[in-house]
Specification:
This protein is 71% helix and 0% strand. The chain has 473 residues and is mostly helical. The longest helix is centred in the N-terminal third of the chain and has 33 residues. This is MBOAT family protein. It comes from Paenibacillus ginsengarvi. It is a multi-pass membrane protein.
Length: 473
């Protein structure tokens, strides 16, 4: 169920009315609402999700007993196996077929009929984080199975994040009955929901057909066309994914809850480390806390640190999809992160840290790294690894920077980047702008402007609704 559909808006409004009308029944209300939201993806998907939720909850209760270590690993293995079966089985078998030139799957094979349950990657990682945190006594097990279900399945963030931790979200679930109606929360919710809808239906969905048009002829695309396609896809995926996260923030605010921020204008990053602190922040933190640090982090020397970085980022790539292009995408960022660590070390040895204070250096670093990010997006977007690498090779030739005939699309890319910069300043100065807005624009004027914005968004919503890109992960 998409956020920007009449069906979801109806579900949300009914849930909100019941939520504030019957405070003592908030857990049952959200329990049912979350089931209704998810069952749209299929009854089988819901039953699987309910089964994994119950299994994880009861295993977490055993993490305070004598066999806590056994139950920790048993529950993690089952959760990972569930994800691997639905997401990677066909990929592994196809890889074996290609490697050994054998036929393992027939056209009517049962495995080819498996449909990836929506949100399985997100709720699996959230369950694993919960289990580890309970085992390490960072958080107590949920009060009840229903509390845990609402924690895992809250419809605002279920399908595509943000990935919430127990210490961040469980206290809010436990205190649902104490939440009071707040006009300030509703204003924040409306702001983030409107921003998300605008990004999705006005920006991302407008870019989508043009991105598809370019990538539909990847094999014959010139290097210049490759850059244009990569620029457009960079903003398509950012506006699409950040739209979902901001709509999730807005919906949570309506219910008096707060979700983690997942994006902070990532294309203003100067290096890969900063990028992953701005892009899909909750996944980046998850990878750091549950993969990188358990592997040893930076505690065992530089070579081990570089190896751990590479492994962690490769796993991040694999998490995104069952394809060698996603593996390559993760490895590419692992290599970038390693090279950046080495670069920092060399700067320190050569006493060049003063470069970081230079505005010119920072500007060049942002532009250069944005183009490196666009190269990475080619790996993410193009289905075949051979085709992706071939296109990247053409993009790295001198002729690729001759944009004759593509100037309109370069202008569009620059305009999108300008919007990205504007978003940075709006978020950075949000408090001051809010004071200015309420000081110089009286309530009737604000009401008219809000109505105009709502009307424009509603007009856009009457068109075809495209699913969110990250639903496939």
């Amino acid at each position: 169920m998409l956020f920007h559909t009449p069906e979801f808006i109806t579900l949300m409004l009914v849930s909100l009315v019941l939520f504030y009308a019957f405070p003592r029944w908030r857990i049952p209300i959200l329990t049912v609402a979350n089931m209704i939201f998810y069952v749209v993806a299929g009854l089988g998907n819901l039953l699987l999700f309910l089964a994994m939720t119950a299994f994880t909850y009861y295993c977490s209760k055993a993490l305070r007993g004598s066999y806590s270590r056994f139950f920790l690993w048993f529950s993690i293995v089952v959760n990972v196996a569930n994800l691997v079966f639905f997401k990677y089985t066909t990929f592994f078998i196809r890889s074996l077929e290609n490697t050994f030139s054998i036929k393992l799957l027939t056209d009517n094979s049962f495995l080819l009929q498996i449909v990836l349950p929506i949100g399985i990657s997100f709720y699996t990682f959230q369950m694993i984080a919960y289990l580890v945190d309970v085992y390490k006594k960072r958080w107590e097990p949920a009060q009840s199975l229903f509390h845990f279900w609402v924690f895992i399945s809250f419809f605002a963030h279920l399908v595509a994040g943000p990935i919430m931790r127990g210490k961040e979200f469980m206290p809010q679930i436990d205190n649902l009955t104490k939440i009071k109606f707040s006009s300030a929360n509703f204003r924040l919710g409306a702001f983030f929901l409107s921003l998300g809808i605008f990004k999705k239906v006005v920006l991302a969905d407008y870019i989508t057909p043009h991105v598809d048009s370019f990538f539909n002829h990847t094999a014959t695309m010139t290097g210049a066309e490759g850059w244009v396609a990569a620029y457009l896809f960079a903003f398509q995926i950012f506006f699409d994914f950040s739209a979902y996260s901001e709509m999730a923030l807005g919906i949570a605010y309506f219910f008096g809850m707060e979700l983690a921020v997942n994006f902070r204008t990532p294309y203003l990053s100067k290096n890969p480390t900063e990028f992953w602190r701005r892009w899909h922040i909750t996944l980046s933190n998850w990878i750091k806390d549950y993969i990188y640090i358990p592997l040893g982090g930076s505690r065992h020397g530089e070579v081990r640190q570089y190896t751990n970085l590479f492994i962690a980022m490769t796993i991040s790539g694999i998490w995104h999809g069952a394809s060698w292009t996603f593996v390559a995408w993760g490895m590419f960022y692992g290599l970038l992160a390693t090279l950046h660590k080495i670069y920092i070390m060399l700067k320190e040895k050569l006493r060049l840290q003063a470069l970081d204070n230079s505005r010119i250096y920072q500007f060049i670093a942002v532009i250069v790294f944005f183009h490196i990010t666009c190269i990475a997006w080619v790996l993410f977007r193009v289905p075949g690894l051979h085709d992706a690498l071939s296109l990247i090779k053409r993009m790295l030739t001198p002729a690729a920077f001759n944009f004759t005939g593509l100037r309109f699309w370069i202008f569009i890319a620059l305009l999108l980047y300008a919007l990205h910069v504007l978003e940075y300043f709006l978020h950075k100065n949000r408090s001051e702008l809010s004071v200015w807005w309420h000081k110089y624009f009286p309530a009737p004027v604000r009401a008219v402007l809000y109505t105009v914005v709502a009307a424009v968004l509603i007009l856009y919503l009457k068109g075809e609704q495209n699913t969110f890109i990250y639903f496939q992960f």
